[in-house]
């Protein structure tokens, strides 16, 4: 099998990927339908209302991240995912029935969007960490890349299909289809051979707190740097569900079908970025920064495109650079995090990606209504480019951070001696996490210094 698809050689991962692509397609269909429902049926082209809906959907991820990560590390992730898929299905079907029966009101969409956010807060870290149980650790970058490819294959198919269905039957049918799509993931999870799953390394008693995840990230500056970059980009630049809708509707005067096509065109670049990531065996922090800068530049260029089709074509490199940044960040963090902490760390990572949206999306919506839709894209591009420049400056002026980055590219390094074990008995879990991190970073600093002298 091609190295790009080697994770698919594992049966459990094939089952996971098959169910995921069905569900991902349904999810992207719902995103388009939800924005279009709010923008054209429940309001008079209100970018603020779309922004509020998006914010309510992602706010719980920000608020519940530490708790959700603790749940992911403590309980069986496969069972957690079965629960979240059933909950997603119920919410999707509820919204579909409300639309079909003509009972839907804006406050109902707000409420259901918030409910989706609560479930997503638990589903996100469980989904990310579960991949490490499906494949060996050396397959993890490939599996992360293929996960993103599956997500963006759904993004490629979903928006265009949603646009056609909305134009023909309205938004209600799209929500119903999305609700049913989660059955595919539940089926895949129940068909897996549990004996072939890697054992989930759960934290020992006394080290299961949500706070331990925050301490771990704070004591790993390389993870903090990645999260700062991705969080800023998510807040300012990853609001395509708002910006593309406003550009299609108000700048180019297009309908639901053309709006859906733009989402699919952007997914071509995103899918390309995900497949390139699947080939990459060693993601790095420098790649995250470079891809963020590329995303900023291409976003700025897309904002000034004069026609619908030129804007659509520029969305391809926008999607490519965005997915390169996200997959590199995801794989780097997972590979550099101890297995027993992975759920809590990934929960915080999901929080900065999805949680930045509630802060940025209402602002982006207001900017679109006040200064025009093109400025919603320009602000994201300029902000992203600036954060990439700041990251380069910080990295160049901090030897300790460079040492931590070098260690992150090797994976977690924790050496336990008999003396350390005796000392550990008198430490709190949070102090133990910091002690292990300090030792690893001292070793990394020493190695970098020796290499520089040589």
UniProtKB/TrEMBL annotation:
Residues 1-399 form the Major facilitator superfamily (MFS) profile domain. The chain crosses the membrane at residues 12-29, 49-68, 80-108, 161-187, 223-247, 259-278, 285-305, 311-333, 345-368, 374-395. Residues 421-430 have a biased composition (Basic and acidic residues). Pfam families: MFS_3 (PF05977). It comes from the Bacteria. Residues 443-454 have a biased composition (Polar residues). It is a multi-pass membrane protein. Signal peptide: none annotated. Residues 421-454 are annotated as: Disordered. SUPFAM superfamilies: MFS general substrate transporter (SSF103473). Keywords: Cell membrane, Membrane, Transmembrane, Transmembrane helix, Transport. It is found in: Cell membrane. InterPro entries: MFS_dom, MFS_trans_sf, TM_effector. CDD domains: MFS_MefA_like (cd06173). Residues 431-440 have a biased composition (Low complexity). PANTHER family: INTEGRAL MEMBRANE EFFLUX PROTEIN-RELATED, STAPHYLOFERRIN A TRANSPORTER. This is MFS transporter.
């Amino acid at each position: 099998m091609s190295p790009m698809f080697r994770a698919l050689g594992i049966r459990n991962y094939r089952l996971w990927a098959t169910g995921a692509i069905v569900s991902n397609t349904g999810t992207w269909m719902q995103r388009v339908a939800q924005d279009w429902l709010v923008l054209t049926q429940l309001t008079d082209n209100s970018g603020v209302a779309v922004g509020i809906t998006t914010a309510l959907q992602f706010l719980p991820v920000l608020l519940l991240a530490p708790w959700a990560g603790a749940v992911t590390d403590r309980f069986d992730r496969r069972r957690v995912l079965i629960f979240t898929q059933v909950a997603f299905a119920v919410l999707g079907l509820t919204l579909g029935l409300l639309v079909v029966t003509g009972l839907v009101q804006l406050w109902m969409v707000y409420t259901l969007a918030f409910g989706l956010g609560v479930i997503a807060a638990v589903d996100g870290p469980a989904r990310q960490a579960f991949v490490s149980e499906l494949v060996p650790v050396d397959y993890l970058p490939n599996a992360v890349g293929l996960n993103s490819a599956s997500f963006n294959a759904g993004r490629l198919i979903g928006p265009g299909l949603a646009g056609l269905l909305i134009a023909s039957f309205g938004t209600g049918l799209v929500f119903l289809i999305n609700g049913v799509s989660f059955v595919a993931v539940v089926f895949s999870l129940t068909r897996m051979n549990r004996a072939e799953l890697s054992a989930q390394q759960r934290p020992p008693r006394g080290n299961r707190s949500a706070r331990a995840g925050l301490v771990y990230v704070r004591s790993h500056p390389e993870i903090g740097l990645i999260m700062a970059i991705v969080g800023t980009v998510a807040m300012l630049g990853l609001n395509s569900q708002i910006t593309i809708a406003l550009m299609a509707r108000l700048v180019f005067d297009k309908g639901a079908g053309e709006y859906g096509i733009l989402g699919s065109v952007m997914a071509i670049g995103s899918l390309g970025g995900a497949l390139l990531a699947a080939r990459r065996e060693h993601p790095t922090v420098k790649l995250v920064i470079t891809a963020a800068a590329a995303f900023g530049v291409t976003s700025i260029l897309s904002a000034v495109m004069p026609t619908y089709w030129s804007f659509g074509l520029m969305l391809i490199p926008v999607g490519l650079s965005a997915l390169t940044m996200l997959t590199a960040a995801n794989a780097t963090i997972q590979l550099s995090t101890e297995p027993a902490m992975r759920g809590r760390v990934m929960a915080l990572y999901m929080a900065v990606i999805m949680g930045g949206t509630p802060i940025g999306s209402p602002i982006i919506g207001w900017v679109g209504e006040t200064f025009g839709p093109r400025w919603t894209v320009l602000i994201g591009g300029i902000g992203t480019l600036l954060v990439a420049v700041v990251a380069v400056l910080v990295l160049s002026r901090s030897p300790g951070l460079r040492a931590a980055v070098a260690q992150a590219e090797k994976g977690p390094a924790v050496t336990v001696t008999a003396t350390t074990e005796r000392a550990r008995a008198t430490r709190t879990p949070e102090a133990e996490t910091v002690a292990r991190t300090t030792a690893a970073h001292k070793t990394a600093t020493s190695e970098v210094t020796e290499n520089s002298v040589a």
